[in-house]
């Protein structure tokens, strides 16, 4: 259909970009594309790599990372590239190089070189721009407005964030089905991310000293990732205020009595994510009060990991973690009554408000751009109750899935100082006992877990989480 633009043997070049890695798992990528083509049948589909995004002026852009759905099938991407699945094959279209690209970004990649590296047909984007409208091509709305504008222009219809209907919804479901179960190439990337993440957490523990800024620990952790040619999979959380769940400020000075929460994960050069949280005492050893809460969280995490197996419902694992936390807090005298009741009536959620984890893959919250369509099985809906409303995953686990398991206990002043909360829970919480633990602020323990036929394969098991093992590492500072 586009005979004059194909790259085989042509002199066309595409815009300057990082060249595809010679280690691309070409066979695995080809099998993924073949599986999607089979699922789509005669339905054509367009996937986008995304656009560069300006940070504060046009020439100062954030580091480019291809959209994950594109990356999943090609292992590579460049700004403005799109892929068309049609007539039983995939074709990658890329923008033409400008005359200035070689100066600023290096020599452009020849399209025939790109075609060989990716194992697909390639062409320049101008061969596609006027050929798609009114053809009923499916797509997935990009997360950024600039790329959705490109999609709308190419397809001749408005592409709206979060809206999936008709063939777009069918495309989403086909990709979700593929990405839920990781193939061998994906598992290898997840293990690579886990190894790099482990090195970063050890570096963070060794860098921790009273009197330095949180940012110094963050720097040690991220430097370790950069040295391994990795990036961060998300904004690093390295904070003595662990009660702020997504705290990305790093200016506080570490006090000897603080607990430092570090939620830091690697992103491999191929784009795959690690996601691990550890919490350790700045002073080098756990105090008795710190040990009390830490052991409750660790017991809940281990119970939840032990429940990971094919066929297990993830929501049940979340409730198990919540009940285990509630039992531990009851034993400490913080909660009163039956732990199962405290897990279901919202009391435990005052201290453990989020879900026990999420899918993991190319996205740290894998496929969350598709909303609960990816995280929730058909027919299941997010519950509005406290303790469940933030649960990101409610599917029955299958072998090949990767999930995180990350219970925590958080002493959030905005919740705990609310007079109505104190009044309404007087018979369920010993507030004097709870207030004795508030200096801890927040503890979370998180690991990356692959669902194997035999149960849980903890990818990040090498990262210390027993109190004795953490103290051993801290003693080597």
Question: Mind sketching the topology for me?
Answer:
Elements: H1 26-40, E1 45-48, E2 54-57, E3 60-61, H2 68-74, E4 82-86, E5 89-94, H3 101-105, H4 111-118, E6 121-124, E7 138-139, H5 145-155, H6 166-180, H7 184-207, H8 214-227, E8 231-232, E9 237-239, E10 259-264, E11 266-267, E12 276-281, H9 288-306, H10 314-331, H11 339-344, H12 372-375, E13 402-405, E14 408-410, H13 413-416, H14 419-424, H15 431-435, E15 442-444, E16 447-452, E17 455-458, H16 467-474
Parallel strand pairs: 1-7, 5-6
Antiparallel strand pairs: 1-4, 2-3, 4-5, 8-11, 9-10, 10-12, 13-16, 14-15, 16-17
Helix pairs in contact: 1-6, 7-8, 9-10
Write the CATH architecture name of the largest domain: Alpha-Beta Complex
Instruction: Give unreliable regions as ranges.
Output: 1-17
Strand order of the largest sheet: 6-5-4-1-7
Q: For the record, what CATH class of the largest domain applies? A: Alpha Beta
Q: Assembly state here?
A: single chain
In CATH terms, the superfamily of the largest domain is Creatinase/methionine aminopeptidase superfamily
Helix content: 25-40%
| Strand percentage | 5-15%
Mass-distribution shape: globular
The main pleated sheet reads as: 5 strands, mixed
